[in-house]
Design brief:
The protein has 207 residues and is mainly beta. The protein contains 4 helices and 13 strands.
Length: 207
């Protein structure tokens, strides 16, 4: 796993093994995840989203605590996956980074609590699956308009296909003024409150 430019986000590039039967890969490795992030991922919910070309979903985030961390990959087709730093007080507040996820390279993205997530389908039947650290709680879920000029995210298909909810979402400045964005310090406190990762087993040396 390699860190992205936004603190709390990583990209995982799995090794793929192919033969005449097809391909095998490990799209999640708990040991590599723990080594890179310093935490464990205990999924409370697994989601699957299927979108036609041009559909744009996001930018979604949840109140912290507890927030909702996500581990995302694309199992069919391709999407432009975007992580947005929505944490007020963060050194990279308002910054976004895009990663292409597809059914060829099979990369995955992990984003910590407090970060925003969005993606746009680059193909028909683009199928995204993701593991979530907490279950869906409508009262704690929010969104930033994905075409907000303050964010300036570069989407490949514009005009995009949005849900009514996403199309009506406020902009970043409006949410910040209303105090509805997670704070960087609150997110850091939440991460420190997570159960400590188990210690590595001791190495026994033979005489």
């Amino acid at each position: 796993m390699e860190p992205l430019s936004i603190e709390g986000a990583w990209r995982y590039r799995p090794r793929r093994f192919g033969d005449p039967r097809g391909t095998f890969l490990e799209w999640f490795r708990g040991d590599l995840f723990r080594e890179a992030t310093g935490r464990d991922l205990d999924p409370a919910q697994a989601n699957c989203s299927v979108s036609r070309r041009g559909v744009l979903r996001g930018v979604h985030y949840a109140d912290v605590p507890p927030g909702q961390a996500k581990y995302v990959t694309c199992v069919r087709g391709a999407v432009r996956d975007v992580v947005v730093d929505l944490r007020t007080g963060s050194p990279t507040f308002g910054r976004w980074e895009a990663v292409e996820l597809d059914d060829r390279d099979r990369d995955a993205v992990f984003l910590s609590e407090g970060l925003g997530h969005a993606f746009q389908a680059l193909t028909d039947d683009a199928t995204v699956v993701y593991l979530c650290s907490t279950g869906y709680q409508p009262s704690r879920e929010h969104g930033v308009h994905p075409l907000d000029e303050d964010l300036g995210i570069q989407w490949p298909h514009v005009p995009a296909v949005l849900s009514e909810k996403d199309a009506a979402a406020p902009g970043l400045a409006q949410l910040e003024a209303a105090g509805l964005l997670p704070s960087y310090e609150e997110c850091r406190r939440h991460l420190r409150s997570l159960p400590p990762r188990p210690a590595a087993p001791a190495t026994v040396l033979e005489a």
